[in-house]
């Protein structure tokens, strides 16, 4: 793939992109790590005092913000390579995630479950301030309460306390990704068995479950509507590769199709993009999926198709 030089007068600091279209895109590109997985794995690293190394981490602002959140909580963060983050929470963590960082990225709320499970307490700023309904945090709160936490919400913070989390049966109102992740992480160190029904089933949820299992958690049913978590006393540090970003991969595949191009997206996982692949074939593109990635060759005449989105 060719990166065009900016036209005269283009200013990358002006807050805009200038795109000169009409070019056929071709070549090979490697898809990066999934942001929506990397951020949650970073938070999950708080569940152990041992060091965890995450590889294939995307170099984006959200990752830097999450790293700053973890550092404020007392974890040590280092980079052995540009896409490798080493996280060592140690034995002493702070229970409060500050507003000035959480407010920059709503995914920071995901530290609530790990902090509560590890420390027995957590105080995390609300991403949307005091308006609890706007961020759908109610399912996080109700689920943690069912695990035995006492929770108070006020002045823009969620404060959770529990001497001991105990497994429970929890049914989510809808497959919330954030609530699934927070409850999954909290349940790994809870006493007994937790059953969570109507959970989110995205590949990033499966990636988080695989990461936690490698740390020593006992989890069944990831990728299905119901997960079963048997709590353990302790988790340990691991080295883990972040799953490739299906959204980035899908964007590149569509770029090949609409420009009548020919692009090999290396490391893209076909199973994560089955519907995208199906629709690309419907419109007339040639799609070749393999263990190495996905190749799409476009067509001059694009056929119409229907698309519906679902959880």
From TrEMBL:
SUPFAM superfamilies in UniProt: EPT/RTPC-like (SSF55205)
One GO MF term attached to the UniProt entry: UDP-N-acetylglucosamine 1-carboxyvinyltransferase activity
Localization (cell): Cytoplasm
Location (main, coarse): cytoplasm
Gene3D superfamilies: Enolpyruvate transferase domain
Pfam families registered for this protein in UniProt: EPSP_synthase
Domain called Enolpyruvate transferase: residue spans: 19-311
Superkingdom: Bacteria
Any Gene Ontology biological process: UDP-N-acetylgalactosamine biosynthetic process
Family the UniProt entry places it in: Belongs to the EPSP synthase family. MurA subfamily.
Name of the featured protein: UDP-N-acetylglucosamine 1-carboxyvinyltransferase
Native source organism of the sequence: Candidatus Aquicultor secundus
């Amino acid at each position: 793939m060719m990166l065009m030089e900016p036209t005269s007068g283009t200013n990358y600091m002006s807050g805009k992109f200038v795109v000169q279209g009409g070019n056929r895109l071709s070549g090979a590109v490697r898809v990066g790590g999934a942001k929506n997985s990397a951020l949650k794995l970073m938070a999950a690293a708080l569940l152990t005092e041992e060091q965890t190394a995450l590889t294939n981490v995307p170099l984006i602002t959200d990752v830097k913000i999450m790293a700053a959140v973890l550092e404020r909580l007392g974890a040590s963060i280092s980079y052995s390579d540009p896409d490798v983050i080493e996280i060592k929470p140690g034995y002493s963590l702070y229970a409060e995630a500050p507003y000035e960082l959480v407010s920059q990225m709503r995914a920071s709320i995901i530290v609530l479950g790990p902090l509560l499970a590890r420390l027995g307490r957590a105080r995390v700023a609300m991403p949307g301030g005091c308006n609890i309904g706007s961020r759908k945090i109610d399912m996080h709160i109700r689920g943690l309460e069912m695990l035995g936490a006492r929770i108070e919400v006020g002045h823009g913070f969620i404060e959770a306390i529990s001497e001991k989390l105990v497994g429970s049966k929890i049914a989510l109102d809808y497959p919330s990704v954030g609530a699934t992740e927070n409850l999954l992480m909290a349940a790994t160190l809870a006493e007994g068995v937790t059953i969570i029904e109507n959970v989110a089933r995205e590949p990033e949820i499966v990636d988080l479950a695989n990461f936690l299992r490698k740390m020593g958690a006992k989890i069944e049913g990831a990728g299905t509507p119901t997960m079963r978590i048997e709590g353990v006393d302790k988790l340990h540090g691991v080295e883990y590769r972040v799953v490739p970003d299906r959204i980035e991969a899908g964007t590149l595949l569509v770029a090949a199709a609409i420009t009548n191009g020919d692009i090999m997206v290396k490391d893209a996982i076909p199973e994560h993009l089955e519907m995208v692949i199906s629709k690309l074939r419907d419109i007339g593109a040639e799609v070749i999926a393999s263990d190495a990635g996905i190749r799409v060759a476009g067509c001059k005449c694009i056929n119409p198709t229907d698309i519906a989105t679902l959880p």
